[in-house]
Design brief:
With 602 residues, the chain is α+β, with helices and mostly antiparallel strands. The protein is built from 17 helices and 22 strands. It has an eight-stranded mixed β-sheet, sandwiched between helices. The chain has a five-stranded mixed β-barrel with strand order 1-2-3-5-4. Strand 2 and strand 3 form a beta hairpin. It is globular. The two termini are 55 Å apart. The chain binds one RNA strand of 77 nucleotides through strand 1, strand 2, strand 3, helix 2 and helix 10.
RNA sequence: GGCCCCGUGGUGUAGCGGUCCAACAUGCCGCCCUGUCAAGGCGGAGAUCGGCAGUUCGAAUCUGCUCGGGGUCGCCA
């Protein structure tokens, strides 16, 4: 062993011990005859002292040390002089008086410093990820991720779930996301596809009688990246036999409360997790993943707007659009500059624009709208809409004197995206969401199908094996859009953590679903043949869930980007700057795979 | 594919038509220093301003294209 202790371990009780430590030179403070080194490893910092009087050789050598050199030091743990303790360090009561110094490895000057409060471009951090990860904050995130995995595994195993690995090299199921594909050498012209999730595999395992399966599954999707999306991510994936929706939700609630209790006991987690139907979530928050830590619910002004006299509103309503609003409490004094910023914000969310209505605080000392006059209102639509209509809008939205109404008009989907993003943004700006609370919510009763304009047909909201509610099976024939599925999402603080469903095991229902989505029997056989074949041999009722591990760790770590909790993530262009992946392969490799690369002409 | 923001010594920023062969902080190098812990003092090196093409008497600064990074809409069953 190169060491007797880690750098973060020595305490006052170790005083007098002769020990050897090893680590990285974090910082050097050279006072001439006396030199201090902060020695760092994963566990913390230890101050080591080189004194020219007590160890002249070591002291001389210490003068050569530079940041990030790897060294081994032997010496005596001693209490620091009175007044020289460092209360900021766990090891701050002691220091190591060095007798011997060994340089284990030298280091180039690092491209950036090892400190938590860092502002370095992501690309530089990723190119030098090995240095980036030396930052205590990054180590802490890696450790937290480890802890979440351990806690989850322990919980799942204790509850009868069997951890089973499934193939990474599998088959393309050309639906949903784009596949990452891998060419087969043995079968020229054929390709494996990396799984977007182990969906069919875990269902087959249920048919196999496994009863309960789980896995930390790597999932691959060749789609554009976001702050919360990487081309490969990890899911806590599970499936259970002989269960109904409530059984699955109960496991979820227990799993997440356990994770929270074990990893962040300081956080408040209201239980039981409330349930919100999809319809209610959209109506109240414009989103199926609302942050329930604050109110600011979205109201609907469509009816009032239709006869308001304001052309934009009227034409939007006439063309089937909606008008929705939120109220920013106490923001009536927002400047033009501030509201322009909000307009810009909603445009970046896809909306055409944003109509603010300021209701002066000085209006109506009673705090009601009754005494509000036109003079109290500031808005671009002030001169187009009657005072009564403006008041009616305010009343419906729940705005009063001192408040700022923010109104968005347009097609329902566009408005919902923009208004819910705006709600989140205002929540952030006004600091309405308590960061110490994790407010989980189950969003349930999703429609089974949604209309796909591109394909001009129905598409599965979740996936094709998700079951309708028993009472909605008849609607498959008469009104597919009204069919509610046994679909559920777990949402926390505005982040979608995962979704799942009870699966279809009834052959007739399954065929209707395929028919509605427009899959031909040939397509069905090609994509889902293996699962359907399995289902012919006795499939138990079952259901499950896929949960984003990266996202929950991100939330627990207090980060706002999953790259911070993934050891080696990719940039927005799906590049790994450390390995420079992806990269061309050699002609020999291409030949072996029977692949010819066509110059794209770029 | 669309939109927005960013790109200046190693790192992070300032400069936004001439006063900039570019400023500040930090890091780096050298010397001094026995109680520091973001050590301190003194001295020094280091960027032709992402790339290309334009506009202009003159471009880090304006325009176009392009490359890279970030955010987002679409997309992500």
């Amino acid at each position: 062993m190169y060491r007797d202790m880690t750098c973060g371990e020595p305490r006052r009780t170790d005083t007098g011990k002769i020990i050897t430590l090893a680590g990285w030179v974090h910082r050097r403070r050279d006072h001439g005859g006396l030199t201090f080194i902060d020695l760092r490893d994963f566990s913390g910092l230890m101050q080591v002292v080189f004194n020219v009087d007590s160890a002249p050789d070591a002291h001389a050598l210490a003068g050569d040390l530079r940041s990030e050199w790897v060294v081994q030091v032997k010496g005596t743990v001693q209490e620091r002089r009175a007044g020289a303790e460092n209360a900021d360090l766990p090891t701050g009561a002691v220091e190591l008086l060095v007798s011997e110094l060994t340089v284990l490895n030298q280091s180039k000057t690092p491209p950036f410093e090892i400190e938590d409060d860092l502002h370095v471009a992501d690309e530089v951090r990723l190119r030098y990820r090995f240095i980036d990860l030396r930052r205590p904050r990054m180590y802490k995130n890696l450790k937290l991720r480890h802890d979440v995995i351990q806690v989850s595994r322990t919980y799942m195993a204790a509850n009868g779930f069997l951890e089973i690995e499934t193939p990474i090299l599998l088959k393309s199921t050309p639906e949903g996301a784009r596949d990452y594909v891998v060419p087969s050498r043995v079968h020229p012209g054929s390709f494996y596809a990396l799984p977007q999730s182990p969906q069919q595999l875990k269902q087959i395992l249920m048919v196999s009688g496994v009863d309960r399966y789980f896995q930390f599954a790597h999932c691959f999707r060749d789609e554009d990246l976001r702050a919360d999306r990487q081309p490969e991510h990890t899911q806590i994936d599970f499936e259970m036999s002989f269960v109904e929706q409530d059984d699955v939700l109960q496991v979820l609630e227990e799993l997440y409360t356990t994770i929270l209790r074990e990893t962040r006991p300081d956080l408040e987690v209201p239980t039981p997790f409330p349930r919100l139907t999809y319809a209610e979530a959209i109506e109240r928050f414009g989103s199926d993943k609302p942050d329930l830590r604050f109110g600011m619910e979205v109201s609907r002004l469509t009816d009032i707007a239709s006869g308001s006299g304001f052309g934009v509103f009227e034409s939007v309503v006439a063309s089937g659009g909606v008008v929705r609003a939120i109220v920013a409490p106490g923001c009536a004094d927002y400047t033009r500059r501030q509201t322009d910023g909000l307009v810009e914000f909603v445009r970046s969310s896809g909306a055409q624009g944003l109509i603010p209505i300021h209701i002066s605080e000085s209006a109506g000392k009673s705090g009601s709208l009754d005494e509000v006059t036109l003079d109290d209102i500031r808005s671009p639509i002030r001169n187009h809409v009657s005072l009564e209509t403006l008041k009616e809008m305010a009343r419906t939205a729940g705005a009063g004197p001192g408040d700022l109404m923010l109104i968005i008009a347009g097609p329902e989907r566009v408005v919902n995206v923009a208004i819910s993003n705006l709600r989140s943004e205002m929540g952030r700006r006004l600091e309405l969401a308590d960061p110490g609370v994790f407010r989980f919510v189950f969003v349930v009763d999703f429609p089974l199908f949604e209309w796909d304009d591109d394909r001009d047909g129905w598409a599965a909201t979740h996936h094709v094996f998700s079951s309708p509610r028993p009472q909605d099976v008849e609607l498959l024939d008469s009104d597919p859009g009204a069919v509610i599925g046994q679909l559920y999402d777990l949402v926390c603080n505005g982040v979608e953590l995962g979704s799942g469903s009870i699966r279809i095991i009834d052959r007739a229902v399954q065929e209707k679903v395929f028919g509605l989505i427009g899959h031909s029997p040939e397509e069905v056989a090609e994509r889902f043949g293996q699962l359907l074949r399995a289902f012919e041999y006795g499939a138990p009722p079952h259901g499950g869930m896929g949960l984003g591990l990266d996202r929950i760790v991100m939330l627990l770590a207090g980060e706002d980007n999953i790259r911070e909790v993934i050891a080696f993530p990719k940039t927005q262009a799906a590049v790994d700057p450390l390995f420079d992946a992806p990269a061309p392969i050699t002609q020999e490799q291409l030949d072996e795979l029977s692949i010819r690369v066509v110059d794209s002409g770029g």
